[in-house]
Amino acid sequence: MTKLICIAGVRHVGKTTVLETLIPRIIDRGYTVVAVKYSTHAHELDTPGKNSWRLKKAGAEITAMVTPEEIAEYRPVKTPIQIRDFLELYREYDVVLTEGISQDNYPTVEILREEVNLIPSDQILNRVATVSDSVLPTNSKLFGFDDLNSLAEFLIAEFID
């Protein structure tokens, strides 16, 4: 069964940096990993003027760029995506790590950095860990940016194994 763990925090706080450490540690333990970057605002994902973009503008509901190594698919969502949708979409993988989204009661690691933001979000329902460069009072496990290997071990033991 696919496991889902969220990495949350404000912009430029270090979410990607944390994921860059977690992903290889989880893979080294034999798991397959999907990383989903979520944005709260719309972006033009395809490159304007490229063939796939032109085909979309011509009316195709889904366009895809396919190479021998990768597939990039562009499709509109008919209803707003929910985090639980990733479990079905990536069901053949062991772990889905989301960056920038925390919904429902999925285990969430919040990233806080002194120069960016030290105020925990009141929107996180299941904060299981906090990564920070400051010592903070928290009701979750606290890890420093220099101790991300321990965070990986904690997540594997508690939520993946």
Briefly say what this structure is.
The chain is of the alpha/beta class and 161 residues long. It has one domain (3-41, 78-160): P-loop containing nucleotide triphosphate hydrolases (Rossmann fold, 3-Layer(aba) Sandwich).
Description of the structure:
The chain is built from four helices and eight strands. The strands form two sheets. The protein has a six-stranded parallel beta sheet, with helices on one face. A two-stranded antiparallel sheet has the order 3-4. The protein starts with a strand and ends with a helix. A hairpin with a 4-residue loop joins strand 3 and strand 4. 25% of the residues lie in helices and 24% in strands. The protein has 161 residues and is an alpha/beta fold.
